[in-house]
Known about the structure:
Mean pLDDT: 79
Radius of gyration: 35 Å
Number of domains: 3
Largest sheet: 6 strands, mixed
Number of helices: 17
Shape: elongated
CATH class of the largest domain: Mainly Alpha
Helix content: 55-70%
Distance between the termini: 80 Å
Strand order of the largest sheet: 6-7-8-3-9-10
Order of helices and strands: HHHHHHHHEEEHEEHEHHHHEHEEEHH
CATH architecture of the largest domain: Up-down Bundle
Structural class: alpha/beta
CATH topology of the largest domain: ABC transporter transmembrane region fold
Amino acid sequence: xxxxxxxxxxxxxxxxxxxxxxxSVALVVAQIVGGVASAVGMISVVGVLDGLLRDGPTPERVRxxxxxxxxxxxxxxxxxxxESAGAAANGRLTPQVSQEAEMRLxxxxxxxxxxxxxxPAWRDAMQRARSRGASAAAQLVNQAIQLxxxxxxxxxxxxxxxxxxxxxxxxxxxTVLPVGWAAVRSARLDHRRFVRLIAVWRRESMLSGLLAxxxxxxxxxxxxxxxxxxxxxxRMIGISTxxxxxxxxxxxxxxxxxxxxxxxxxxxxYGVLLWLLWTGRxxxxxxxxxxxxxxxxxxxxxxxxxxxxxxxxxxxxFADFEGFCELSRARAEPEPGGVxxxxxxxxxxxxxxxxxxxxxxxxxREMTLTLRRGEVIALVGENGSGKSTLAALLxxxxxxxxxxxxxxxxxxxxxDPESVRERVAVVMQEPTRWPLTAxxxxxxxxxxxxxGMAEVRAAARAGDADEFIMELKRRYETLLSRHFTDGADLSxxxxxxxxxxxxxxxxxxxxxxxxxxxNLDARAEHDVYQRLRELAAGRTVVLITHRMASVREADRIxxxxxxxxxxxxxxxxxxxxxxxxxxxxxxxxxAYQSA
Length: 595
């Protein structure tokens, strides 16, 4: 603790300074001045006792004690007022520190490369940072302030004891060392348990969430998964419970040993004080002041031990937070400074290879292909062939580990990723169901401009979403989530059409559609493809689909097989070649032919 405490206090101060400089300075001043008032109060006790215990008539002794008594009362009043002011300042500062830490966490999480989310070690680190690390930041600042306050008070008590009799000071410190040792050991045991169980808690949380999730509820019941999933959750909780019981028993034994040793040291301290009085080495007035200082010092030491232990303990969790931040900064997307052009004539993938973390084989290997403005490009292949990964590379969501993505001959690695993605509209197979209003769900397609209703409705009509939106309770201002009052939910097909509308509103030069009609009926699918062809005028459309009839009119078809470009050409050319595409098309077409 002694080794790590200065660095932790420095981190706490830096957090507080970033959150609110003025309040941080006011808090420090209040603590220091309060400590000085505490010291003055303790010194005045010596004057009070000296006046009361001197020889002479009682009225004279009382009059002699009054100045010191007034000084004591005044110092106590000042200290109480400053403690109240410090508590108020701390009440303002702590929530701001929590906000600062939470926003820092989310900012870094959303800046990492997308492939980082496929790394289990990073996800464990993120879970540790989110579950305890961010809250530990506020606790670290709060307890650091308490620690400084009590240290100032202890210095005052120690100064008084050193003046009264030097031997009492080391004995005072001795009383708290066993308790401090027990607290540090207990904190380490708790943190080790936390690190050891984080993956178990993450899995248990995921399964518990599915048991209570509206989207998972139909399949949970349809496949009678309730008993099985409850058993898995029970097993995860059982592992955690056994570990917690074991650690709790170790902590109790440690604290009992520390408390016993601390009580023995306290008895020794008061024994020495009585011996000094018995042998005449200390006056009675001085002895009374020393007893008061020892009592106050032990109280301050106990509070320091608690605060230091909490700082140390929260520091362990804050170290997880800091470690995750460092890891996320190392995994952050580069910001080379270039800006992608507002439009392009040609995008070329040249010998591009990409692998997911810990994957044995690349998802895309030595891929070379070209997209030209105004073309409709189709990517086809079996599941796992690399279609969605290739689309993510085109959209700037992933960076190739080998090769390059060129925009009009310029390597996109020199562009800021955000500027690349602003030139792309993506329709996902399973679009995110944002808990926003219908208007916002479409308007977030382009955040740099205010979503005007005329433009939003035009995009909704283009995506065939306007009709069902107008049937909602509050129309375009309806919140699309059943989790909130007056919220509404949509069917899978309606969410898909909303996503297509968002792509129309984005109005980007490159449109990537990953199974855009997966949840639509035949008529709606036909209408969407008609509108996509209209949107393709002057733009480039990349279409990923398993429905082979949808790609017949594409300008060029790329056939992927296990991450490799196996075939390319037009529909007629590929059918004549009799390769993978012809087999897939013929197999699917046969399902629609009468027996």
